[in-house]
Amino acid sequence: MEERAEILDLLRENARYSTADLARMTGTTEEAVEAAIAELEDAGVIRGYQAVVDWDRAERASAASGDRVHAVVECNVTLDRETGYDDIADRLAGFPDVQSLRLMSGDYDFAIEVEGTSMSEVSRFVSEKVAPVPEITQTVTHYVMETYKEAGHRFDDGYDDDRLSVTP
């Protein structure tokens, strides 16, 4: 099991590691790595592989990529005898605009990460799809202004501000 945990950690670091790389890093064979990954995928432990994209750079590089607006929507809910958190989560997770959905502790119940092509589109999604869910009592939408780090990857542009600070 320790080998699987090590493989998972390495794949989270870089999902593009080859089985040969993973075998070398874990001190095992490629066949053992392939078998472990297949078992983890079959068991639903590994849910997918995704690229972490700096959309600001992609948009600068290609106007065809279009604008993207990211938001985090806080939702409060009221549960009844027939409806639980899982029921509401199942309904919300079915919307394609929802990138991630988490049950939270603290001041609100759900955190929904939403992506759209404009603030209007995201607002419309929240007002027309999320807010009408009967158990949802309140939503608060926070628009992402800048991303500095995502999925463990820093999004800096390599620009070092080498100006000297001026003190009185």
Provide a descriptive summary of the structure in words.
This protein is α+β, with helices and mostly antiparallel strands. It has helices at 2-13, 19-26, 30-42, 55-61, 85-93, 119-130, and strands spanning 69-77, 98-103, 110-116, 136-143, 149-150, 153-154. Strands 2-3-1-4 form a 4-stranded antiparallel beta sheet. A two-stranded antiparallel sheet has the order 5-6. A hairpin with a 2-residue loop joins strand 5 and strand 6 (153-154). Helix 2 packs across helix 3 (30-42). The model has no long low-confidence stretch (mean pLDDT 86).
Structure characteristics:
alpha+beta; Alpha-Beta Plaits; 20% strand; 6 strands; 6 helices; two-stranded antiparallel sheet; Arc Repressor Mutant, subunit A; 168 residues; 36% helix; extended
Our measurement of the CA-to-CA distance between the termini, rounded to an integer number of angstroms, reads 59 Å
Please identify, by name, the CATH architecture of the largest domain. 2-Layer Sandwich
Q: For this structure, what is the CATH class of the largest domain?
A: Alpha Beta
**Count of individual helical segments:** 6
- The helix content is 25-40%
Please sum up the structure shown.
Helix content is about 35%, strand content about 20%. With about 170 residues, the chain is α+β, with helices and mostly antiparallel strands.
Annotate the secondary structure layout.
Layout: H1 2-13, H2 19-26, H3 30-42, H4 55-61, E1 69-77, H5 85-93, E2 98-103, E3 110-116, H6 119-130, E4 136-143, E5 149-150, E6 153-154
Antiparallel strand pairs: 1-3, 1-4, 2-3, 5-6
Helix pairs in contact: 2-3
